[in-house]
Amino acid sequence: MKLTADYHTHTIFSDGKNTALENALAAEQAGLETIAVTEHGYSHHFRGLKRRETEAWLAMIEDARAGSKIEVLRGMESNIRGISGLCDFTEKDFENFDVYLAGIHIVIRYENFRDRKLGWGGWMRRSLHLKPSERFVRDTTRAYLNAIEKNPLDIITHLNFQCFADVKEVAKCCRDYGTYLEISSKKQHFTDEELAEAAATGVRFVINSDAHSADRVGDAALAAEQIARVGIPLGQIDNIEGRKPTFRFAEFKKHL
Ligand SMILES: [Zn+2]
Ligand SMILES: [Zn+2]
After folding, report:
1. How much distance in Å is there from the Cα of 193 to the middle of ligand 2?
2. Which residue in 150, 164, 204, 238 has the most C-beta neighbors within 10 A?
3. How far apart are the first and last CA of the chain?
4. How confident is the model at residue 162 (pLDDT cuts 50, 70, 90)?
5. Domain 5-254 architecture
6. pLDDT in tens, 97-147
7. Which ligand has the nearest atom to the CA of 211?
8. Which residues contact 127 (CB under 8 A, 6 or more apart)?
9. Cα-Cα-Cα-Cα dihedral sign, residues 145, 252, 220, 80
10. Bridge partners, 184 (sequence order)
11. What's the 159 CA to ligand 2 centre distance in angstroms?
12. Pairing verdict, β 5-9 and 205-208
């Protein structure tokens, strides 16, 4: 299995160690054709890209484009900020980005006080190995479904990291809206059963490294292991073997 593109990488503008150029050169070395630079979103308290830094960040992307031979996309790992599905971009932000990812994180500005449970509630339950209530899973699942329905999201990142959602329901929604489900190679977030259930819905997958340093860009090893173990058809993964995904956000922007 050979990765064509890595759509989830961080730089010094969020909590990564390297610049976009250093990541792009590592990707080139690893034989990739494309990377997306995807900092944490604007609503992340400490690790997110700041709106006022956007110009400098775009300049860093230009450097990476000029200094490497691969395609470098401008992306963001936006935060799902509430059960309503609110994410980080406003329409004004659209022109500065090529790909739109979203995931649930802690230490962000939630839409409402009660929405803090999405990240913090999941984090606490995972840390203490507590089983989530049905209502908790229902609310988290609703947040994902609303986010996918209301925003032109390209990729849902690390589903069920620091939270608990119904993977099958989220996968069905991704399938219906043309949003990709990420299989992370940073950590395993799906159980084998969840990954099999997701695949059975017909959802399309991408494998991403979620690299926070250049030496991990293009690393697909952990994801490849689970994919082989569960028996996911490789034809269902759109960023390997020379294939490229068709992204929803780019299509959406054409019709603005
Ligand atoms: Zn993340
Ligand atoms: Zn990330």
Report:
1. 24
2. 164
3. 37
4. confident
5. Alpha-Beta Barrel (3.20)
6. 999 999 999 999 999 999 999 999 999 999 999 999 999 999 999 999 999
7. 2
8. none
9. negative
10. 208
11. 11
12. unpaired
Residue 157 CA, ligand 1 centroid: distance in Å:
6
Ligand nearest to the CA of 11: 2
Q: What is the pLDDT of residues 53-79, one digit of tens each?
A: 999 999 999 999 999 999 999 999 999
Q: What type of residue sits at position 136?
A: F
> Can you tell me the distance from the alpha carbon of 6 to that of 30, in angstroms, rounded to the nearest whole number?
11
How far is the centre of ligand 1, averaged over its atoms, from the C-alpha of 220 (Å)? 16
Distances (CA, A) of 69 to 64, 90, 239, 242: 9, 31, 18, 17
| 101: Cα within 13 Å, side-chain hemisphere | 30
SS3 category, 208: strand
Cα of 110 from ligand 2 centre, angstroms? 18
* Residue 205: band (very low, low, confident or very high) from pLDDT cuts 50, 70, 90: very high
DSSP β-bridge partners for residue 102? 78, 156
How far is 60 from 229, CA to CA, in rounded Å? Answer: 39
Q: d(Cα 119, Cα 113) in Å, to the nearest integer? A: 12
State the CB neighbour count (10 A cutoff) for residue 228: 11
d(CA 157, ligand 2 centre) in Å:
7
Question: Do 89 and 97 touch, CB atoms closer than 8 A?
Answer: yes
